Automatic annotation (TrEMBL), chains A, B:
Belongs to the D-glutamate cyclase family. This is Putative hydro-lyase BT1A1_3203. Transmembrane segments: none annotated. One of its GO terms (molecular function) is lyase activity. Keywords: Lyase. Its EC number is 4.2.1.-. It is an enzyme of class 4 (lyase). Gene3D superfamilies: PSTPO5379-like (3.40.1640.10), PSTPO5379-like domain (3.30.2040.10).
Length: 263, 263
């Protein structure tokens, strides 16, 4: 098998569809946007889309799979989003039901799929600029925290913002603000730099999701809005059914990261 | 009456609500975002919001008035959007029915209001940087053109992008790209600079909407996506009922232009 980093998005999705790739997608089809998935019943779709519209930092919409469609028409028109993610999770009334590699049987015409940007996009920009990404260095998951920053309510959806954290020097933090400001539609600039208590985080070494990472001397924690937020908010209303990707098992789009840079 | 430019948004909306200001809002409450209005039946709301999401340059959503609400909860929570616009237009099945100063009797709980960004926001940035705005100099409406650039379809909504045009020198055009790139959520950077035929405009002196303006020697036309696009696209599907603002008679929000700058 050739280097997964050089797969085209279509090649990667084909492997996944044929169950020849049933593992996380980090490092696959480098340079292309990978997205979180949240599938909800149609009657919740307007409120959820409005929630994302009002909270673009934690909930950057990449594309939407319209009722009856199998593909996101802009992000990957040749895909089948019911089979092209290596691992899905199914929830009923907010309770985890199963993990599966194919949701064709479950996903019906009354559901709408939302593809939501993930931090892989801006991490590429950070790496290119030699800003360290500690959880990659330490080969673990990014630490994530529930904050005291409220999202803007929309319809029945509301809740606190979840953030991810990357430690770096203050000089690197300034560069990181510049780099990620170029990508307002995939989380954009940080939401906070420095003292975690200000945003309601009591113990930086005890994240709510993911793993704790080393913060070296003279480093400050830098916080970005995290794509876990919309899933958490949606789960909170206990929808009849909800389908998501399994953590790290993302949908690979045909869109290049650089297309999402506004500068 | 004090200088309208210095009105607070709440003061301006009160005057309008009490019918003491029944004229265009250009130059009122300077520095605050003014918005286009499009009110549609609830059953079209998801498709329309998705259309705007997919076409952020012509259709930048500022806020949404949810079914049953009278105010946009983020943009102006103390407003009454059924009375706070100086002049509305009502359409039934795509046909103009009436112009009115109050839509309280018409707007019911089955409708959703969309506030869409207008070019006033980035024109302020251009003026501050001494980039000329010819239609202001010539005291007429901005020239607008239907292009051959297709919007991205969403549900039943589709159609060509409408653009507005401002002529300037090539040097000013470069500055204008920089200035308007700061505002991706109110039309953002231009969609085209130079030869109008490339985007399907046959006669630059014969705009589809608004007025023709002088293009001086050594000036090039610079085109921005225009907020007329979503209204034109919505009208095209002939909704049972649709309410809009009358041209130039905008909704004044509590949000400052600068809040919408990403840099």
């Amino acid at each position: 098998m050739s280097n997964p980093a050089h797969f085209s998005p279509a090649e990667a999705r084909k492997l996944i569809r044929e169950k020849n790739w049933v593992k996380p997608t980090s490092g696959v089809a480098n340079g292309y946007i990978q997205a979180n998935l949240a599938v909800l019943p149609k009657e919740l779709a307007f409120d959820f889309l409005l929630f994302c519209q009002r909270n673009p930092k934690p909930c950057p919409i990449i594309d939407v799979i319209e009722p009856g469609d199998v593909a996101p028409q802009v992000a990957a028109p040749s895909a089948n989003v019911k089979t092209d993610i290596p691992k899905y999770r199914v929830y009923k009334k907010g309770e985890f039901v199963e993990e599966t590699t194919d949701v064709t049987e479950i996903w019906d015409e009354n559901m709408v799929g939302f593809l939501i940007g993930c931090s892989f996009t801006f991490e590429e920009a950070l790496l290119k600029n030699e800003v360290p990404i500690r959880h990659i260095e330490e080969n673990c998951n990014v630490p994530m925290y529930i904050t005291n920053i409220p999202c803007v309510k929309a319809g029945i959806f509301e809740g606190p913002m979840v953030v991810s954290m990357r430690p770096m020097t203050e000089k690197q933090a300034i560069r990181a603000v510049q780099l990620t400001s170029r990508f307002p539609s995939v989380h954009g600039a940080p939401v906070h730099i420095g003292n975690p208590e200000v945003i309601g985080i009591k113990d930086i070494h005890n994240p709510d999701f993911g793993d704790s990472v080393t913060i070296k001397e003279r480093e400050v924690p830098v916080f970005w809005a995290c794509g876990v937020t919309p899933q958490a908010v949606a789960m909170h209303v206990k929808p009849e059914i909800m389908i998501t990707h399994a953590p790290g098992h993302m949908f690979i789009t045909d869109l290049k990261n650089e297309q999402f840079a506004i500068l």
